[in-house]
Amino acid sequence: MRRKLALLFVALGFGGFIAINNLTPAVGSNHTAAIMSIDGAIDSASADFLARGIVSAFEGGHSFLIIKLDTPGGLLGSTREIVESMLGSPIPLVVYVSPSGAQAASAGTFITSASHIAAMAPATNIGAASPVGSGGEDLPETIKDKVTEDTAALIRGIAGRRSRNVKALEDTVLSAVSYTAAEALEIGIVDIVAQDLDDLLAQLDGRTVQLDDGQVTLRTEGISIVTISRTPLERFLGFLANPDIAFILLTIGGLGILIEFLSPGLLGPGIIGLIALALAFVALGNMPVNWVGAGLILLAMGLFYLETQAPGVGVFGVGGAISFILGAFLLFGNLSFGPFVPQLPAAPRVELSLWVLGTVTAFLLALIFLMARATHQATKAVVYAGATTIGEVVGQLGHAISDLHPSGTVYVAGEQWSAESDDGEPIQNGKEVIVLAVEGLVLRVFQADKESLGDES
Question: Which CATH code fits 22-230?
Answer without folding.
Answer: 3.90.226.10
